[in-house]
Specification:
Blueprint lengths: L5 E9 L2 H12 L2 E2 L7 E5 L7 E5 L4 E9 L2 H14 L3 E3 L2 H7 L3 E6 L5 E6 L28 E4 L4 H11 L2 E4 L3 E2 L5 E2 L2 E4 L7 E3 L8 E8 L2 H13 L4 E7 L6 E6 L5 E6 L16 E2 L14
Parallel strand pairs: 1-4, 5-8, 9-14, 15-18
Antiparallel strand pairs: 1-5, 2-3, 3-4, 6-7, 7-8, 9-15, 10-13, 11-12, 13-14, 16-17, 16-19, 17-18
The protein binds 3-methylcatechol and fe (iii) ion.
The site of 3-methylcatechol has 7 residues, from loops.
């Protein structure tokens, strides 16, 4: 049974590549890979060639998610699963494989049209140990958990759940939030590895493919230093520092140059015996700046 093992890379389009360079290096601490050029900013979080690619464009959105399988055999087994399920996919060309710095690649779309890629064998540049763009006390928490998580658009929760279940993720509804307008939001969280969730979806009214990307530090000082940098630059903070009920991450959400949100976090810790749901977070996460699609009463 072929399953994905991590969210290995993500790609974004942007009209603001210069702003992204400053934001990624000064606010987040990401490293710029040496083969970055004027059209594509490759960002590193660990020894992988890159984890995030930002492409110069006339749009601002997430333009692909890269899910890793372990072996070449798993890649072909995944293609067979798509064929059996009647899901359209194609094997990437040699050029496309090189662009992603992997050894093999499938391209398809998720049920909401989000470009989705399945790959095996990322290029890991062990001769270039990760070197953050600003001093860091610790590192980014990747390892057996992938690069982080994303809250993505889902036009149809059922179809989206089934698609990601086919990829090998599992999960469930984890919040039941009473919205001020009387509606109820029941976001769904799914994972394929040691991270509590790799994707979340189920927020109504999303226009972009992504609401937020979460990156996790393994040292709380680095989260605090990033928070200072964001505050000193006057960048919008959508939700203030707080701790989530489900993964116990201590996080805040700020605007990226592309106007979707970056969630920066520290300290995931969760061990429920079975499925639970929450009607709010442990503390914090107060709404500070509305209009980023995350005006949730957490
Ligand atoms: C998350 O990471 C998140 O973004 C929300 C909205 C709720 C719980 C965990
Ligand atoms: Fe999140």
């Amino acid at each position: 049974m072929s399953k994905v093992i991590e969210l290995g890379y993500v790609g974004f389009n942007t009209t603001k590549l210069d702003e992204w360079y400053d934001f990624a290096t000064q606010c987040i601490g990401l490293e710029v890979a040496s083969d970055t050029d004027e059209n594509c900013l490759f960002l590193r979080m660990d020894n992988h060639h890159h984890r995030i690619a930002i492409h110069k464009s006339d749009e601002d959105d997430m333009c692909y998610m890269g899910w890793r399988v372990d072996t070449e055999k798993d890649l072909h087994a995944m293609a067979e699963k798509f064929a059996d399920a009647g899901i359209e996919y194609r094997m990437a060309s040699e050029k496309e494989i090189r662009e992603r710095h992997v050894l093999g690649l499938i391209k398809l779309k998720d049920p909401s049209g989000i470009p989705t890629e399945i790959f095996w064998s990322p290029q890991v540049d062990v001769m270039k140990p990760f070197h953050p763009s600003r001093p860091m006390y610790g590192k980014f928490a990747t390892g057996t958990q992938g690069l982080g998580h994303a809250l993505i658009k889902a036009d149809n929760n059922e179809a989206t759940y089934q698609f990601y279940e086919l990829l090998g993720l599992s999960g469930s509804v984890e919040y039941r939030l009473q919205m001020p307008n009387g509606a109820v939001a029941q976001p769904i969280f799914m994972t394929c590895n040691d991270r509590q969730h790799n994707i979340a979806f189920g927020l109504p009214g999303m226009e972009k493919n992504i609401n937020h990307l979460m990156l996790e530090y393994d040292n709380i000082y680095d989260l605090g230093i990033s928070h200072d940098a964001v505050r000193n630059k006057g960048i919008d903070v959508a939700l203030q520092l707080g701790m989530h009920a489900n993964d116990k991450l201590y996080t805040f959400y700020c605007a990226t140059p592309s106007n979707w949100l970056l969630e920066l976090g520290f300290g995931e810790d969760y061990k429920p015996i079975g499925q639970e749901h929450y009607i709010g977070d442990i503390f914090g996460h107060s709404i500070e700046k509305k209009g980023y699609g995350l005006d949730l009463p957490l």
